[in-house]
C-alpha cells in the first residue's frame, strides 16, 4: 500500500477509541462485500522497489490473512470476525498468539482498510472510501488546520493489469501535500490491483480466484501458542518461564519490525 493511505490507516485505528456498540455493526455491514466477495489470493509487490520482500493476501469466507515474506517482520495477521479469531503468526519462530479477545476492535479497525483494498462494485472507488472514513473523520485530523481525508476519483478508462481487465482511476485528495495518485480496480474481484503515487507503488500479481483453505485462517499445526500474559511479561522485562519469555521477546521484536515499516 502506498503512502497515500497512511491517513486512512489513522482513521481506521481511530475507530478503536469509539464506543463499540455504535461502530461494530455499522462498519461490518458497510464493508460486507469487501470481506465476503469472491475468494482469492495474490502477491502484493512494491512495484517501484521490487527488491523488497513481497507480501501475500488471502481473502475468503469473511476472513483475511495478510502474510509478510520479510523475515524481520511478523509472519502473518489473520482476522476471522465470524469466529472471533485474531491470530498473530511468527513463522520463523513457529509460534502464534490468538488475540481473540480483541477481534471486535480489530474488525472495526480493519473495516475501512478492507474497503480501500476492495471498493464495492464497479463504481467510483472514492465514494466508497469517503463513506468508510466519514464516521471517523474527526479523529483523523492531525491538527485543526488539516481536514479529515477525502478523495476524488476521475475515470481514466480500462487497462489490463497483469493480464486481468481493470478500471483505471486518477485520485486526488484534499491534502495538497499528497499529490496525485493512479489506481486500477480489478473488474472481476473489485480489488485494488495496482496503485502508483509519488512515494511508491503497489501491485497485485499472480491473482488466483477460488476458495481458500481453512488452514490459512486457523492456528497453524505444530506452532507454539503464546499467551497474552507472556507477551505482556516480555514488555515488562521478561517472564518467569525462560522459554516462553524468550519466545515472547522474539515475537515482540518481530511485531515491532512489522509496525515500523
Walk me through this protein's architecture.
It contains seven helices and twelve strands. It has a twelve-stranded mixed sheet. Helix 4 packs antiparallel against helix 5. It has helices spanning 6-14, 20-30, 32-36, 103-117, 125-133, 228-235, 242-259, and strands spanning 40-45, 55-60, 63-68, 76-80, 85-90, 95-98, 151-161, 164-173, 181-186, 192-197, 200-209, 224-226. With 261 residues, the chain is of the alpha+beta class. 39% of the residues are buried.
Task: Please give the structural blueprint.
Elements lengths: L5 H9 L5 H11 L1 H5 L3 E6 L9 E6 L2 E6 L7 E5 L4 E6 L4 E4 L4 H15 L7 H9 L17 E11 L2 E10 L7 E6 L5 E6 L2 E10 L14 E3 L1 H8 L6 H18 L2
Parallel strand pairs: 6-12
Antiparallel strand pairs: 1-2, 1-11, 2-3, 3-4, 4-5, 5-6, 7-8, 8-9, 9-10, 10-11
Helix pairs in contact: 1-4, 2-4, 4-5, 6-7
Q: Roughly how many Å apart are the termini?
A: 11 Å
Number of helices: 7
Strand adjacency order, main sheet: 7-8-9-10-11-1-2-3-4-5-6-12
User: Element order, helices and strands?
Assistant: HHHEEEEEEHHEEEEEEHH
Overall pLDDT score: 74
Main structural class: alpha+beta
Backbone CA Rg: 19 Å
Question: What would you call the shape?
Answer: globular
- The fraction of residues assigned to DSSP E strands is 25-35%
Helix content: 25-40%
Count of distinct strands? 12
Contiguous uncertain segments of 5+ residues: 1-30, 239-243, 251-261
The quaternary organization reads as single chain
